[in-house]
Records
---
Amino acid sequence: MTDIADENVNITKTKRERIRERVLQAEKDKLHLDNPRGIINDVEDIIREEIN
């Protein structure tokens, strides 16, 4: 796996909107939990999926 921070990535407005919606949905899905473990991993996975 490559470190995406080391890459020059251009992301279209459409893709940024899709990422934003997916991240918001992931956060909503865990909102009811007392301790929403794994949300950071979920967000990282979403971003990796969308930019690869």
Note: The chain is about 60% helix and 0% strand.
---
Amino acid sequence: MTIIDTKYFKEYRQKLGFTNQQDVKRFFAGKDIIPTVDFNYIALLNDRLFEIVWKINELSVSIIKVDNIETFCSENITSVFEKLKTNNIIPKLNNQGRRPEQVYFSWMRGYIVSNYFLKALSLIFEVNIEDIDLIGDDDLIDIETFKRTPKADLEVNLKNGGKIRLEIQSGFQGTNDIKQHKVLEAKRLFRENNIATIAIHFDLFNGQVAFVKLNEIDDDNMNWITRQQMEGQTVFNIDQNYFVWKLTEKPPRYYDLSFC
């Protein structure tokens, strides 16, 4: 009887047609098979995105409503989907084992919320929409840069010449957290460039909006928690006191907020 040792293991895997152990594991687990994207499913998800925009627009006060809802949906849902599809990004989307269609839907919800409320943000900071710059790292063409980074989504050019970074978040389940790396990035930015970062969290589940100055969150703040549903990540749970705007009412002015 021959000896069973690591040399045999290697020869066996080579006979299977593999020279890399990870490739063998992926083969037997079927993880090298990329599921075909169900575009019929995505069509239904896109319909839901349209419904979300319509419902938000119906309950919003007239001063922040989108003027032409059909055009908004065409530019921010249909056109974005087509660009992602054309550049073959959707099949490559993955996040903790979720289907690419679901990752796409989650990203798109946040994307359309950020764009829908641009008019509201211009009123809050008393600037023109053109004074709000998109600086996030999501790229609709290259999968290598289509990812979430600690960098904030928007930068507001204030009338006094100053700048403020905005981290736009949207919540749909009633759980309102800020990931720790967002706070760490905000503190770094303030330390190195003296630019403050504000998280504006749209809780669509409850119809409220919170304003949190990220660079001022203390390391020992009692709202730091470990969220088991997020693989034990440390997050800043947004206290109810941070929520100061009812979505059914006129947005507040930045300079009237209590942290200013």
Note: The longest helix spans residues 39-59.
---
Amino acid sequence: MIKKILIASIALILSFGATGSGVTRLVDYMVTESGVVELLARYGIKGTDAKMVESYVASSLAALASKKSLTKVELKELLSRLPVSGADANMRKELQVLLDMSENEIKKEDVVKAINNIIYLANRHGKSIIITCTECVNENLALSGFKFTVENIKNSSSLKVLNEVLPKNPAELNTFIASRMKRLGMGDYSKVTPDLVSTSEEKSLALFLGLAESGTPDQKALIASVKKLATRNGKTNLIDPKNPQKFWKVVIDDLSPQEMNGWTSTLEEVASLSQKEGLSTEEAFYRTLKDKAQGNDYLLKQFESLKSKRCFFK
């Protein structure tokens, strides 16, 4: 163990010494595992939380570069070549400025913002990466200002859609979503505004739509239950401002067949209750969960936490 720590420390020192100017910058920390963990520890982010963030950074850089490790020069060149425009271009520029900050200038908010930007850009322009909001996954990191978590997808059907079906270019991804929604009878994406589906959520939606045609039988059954939930008076509108829900995000989790079947059954119940009593999807979902949790204090606490976060309804 001591030998591993020594080797990691030497590698970190050598990478810092290679800056040319002798000044350690934020980019030096971002391209090494020990650097990210060390930097986070300065701001009280340690242990499992720090390792999680480090893994998010590593996965994001790998998604952008299609290889496991980058030098700081390679990272800078990669960012400069990203085909970004609009808000993504502004985020890229902000990240470039942050990465060039010297060690004595860096504040916690700079580190958090840089990592948020790396993860966001990887989701938008990288390969094989899906992100979700931190608030519903890790409250500690959310309180520190981290916006995104990176999902570690292992399901072979999901990976195939991510790697072989979904476009990497954001504009093409948007077109993919619109055409698939129309083909699957799930609504008109041209009418969907960013407050209903943010740019950071589009790849998750695209994965859902890709799996509707290329997923396993269990995935297709789950997707059919989400479609049923989004159907009112015979018309399906997956992204409905009058009855919002984001259960299409369920597919980004690596669920077992049993877990998928559990979700499918629950959403079928929610759809039935919603239609029978004229409830919104959100009202029907929480009533269904509360009924299932009755008599179990632990489940009731989990229910209250889930309801307060509104993870599928914001």
Note: The mean pLDDT is 90.
